[in-house]
Amino acid sequence: MSDALKMLPRSPQERVELCLDALRKIYPRLDLASHIIGDPITVSWEADPNFLGAFKGALPGHYRYTRRMYCHFRQDELPAAERGIFMAGDGVSWTPGWVEGAVQTALNAVWGIMHHLSGECDPANPGPGDRFDKLKPIELPE
Q1: pLDDT by residue (tens digit) across 102-112?
Q2: What is the per-residue pLDDT for 6?
Q3: Which of 9, 10, 79, 120 could cross-link with 14 by S-S, CB 3.0 to 4.6 Å?
Q4: At 34, phi and psi to the nearest 5?
């Protein structure tokens, strides 16, 4: 079981204390607790009824959702009000849980931002969006 799941039954205050204890061992001369100015909030994905666990995007039947997230950096066909936010990370990629997917989607997002701001790649060095129509993942029927 992961450390996050082991923390789930604990109260937010107990979670904070356990984390502060671990950080004190790493940073013995730093008083992190003195920087807490309000009631800490902790979030455990495992407690969310829609949490699917690690590698959630790689489960059978999830191809269309992964495709939508992965292709989100190409926003020309979205309504104007829905453009301008770009997702990146392993959870948006074809390889959830692996750094390669995080890096790939970060490069896609950078291209999307550049394109959104009217920038373009050098034709001799096309970016992921420039060749997307040829290389994009296939779209399955709904």
Answers
A1: 999 999 999 99
A2: 85
A3: 10
A4: -70, -15
What does the block give as tokens for 135? 């290389």
| pLDDT per residue as tens digits for the range 103-141 | 999 999 999 999 999 999 999 999 999 999 999 999 988
What is the C-alpha to C-alpha distance for residues 40 and 15, in angstroms, rounded to an integer? Answer: 9
How far, in Å, CA of 40 to CA of 10, rounded? 13
Asked if 93 and 99 count as a contact pair (C-beta separation under 8 A), the reply is no
Single out the residue of 99, 97, 105 nearest to residue 57, CA to CA: 97
Three-state DSSP string of the chain: CCHHHHHCCCCHHHHHHHHHHHHHHHCCCCCHHHHCCCCCCCCCHHHCCCCCCCCHHHCCCCHHHHHHHHHHHCCCCCCHHHCCCCCCCHHHCCCCCCHHHHHHHHHHHHHHHHHHCCCCCCCCCCCCCCCHHHHCCCCCCC
